[in-house]
Amino acid sequence: MSKKTGAAKTQKKGKGSGKSAVAESGSGHAGAPPYVIVFALLAVLTVIEIYVSGWDIGKSNQILLLMILASSKAALVALYYMHLRYESRILRWIAVIPVAFAVGLAYVMVVV
Amino acid sequence: MGTDTSGKLAEVDFNSYWPVYLGIGIPLLLAGLLVYFDVFMIGFVIFAYGVYGWVRQQEKLRPLEGHLLSEKPDKHILAGITTRKMGMWIFLASETMFFSGLIGASLALRAHAHSWPEPGEILNVPLTATNTFILICSSMTMVEALKSIQEGNQRMLRVYILATLLLGMTFIGIQAWEYSLLIHEGLTPSESLYGTAFFTQTGFHGAHVSGGLVALFIVTVKAFKGGYTQDNHEEVELMGLYWHFVDVVWIFLFTIVYLI
Question: What is the pLDDT of residue A14?
Answer without folding.
Answer: 38
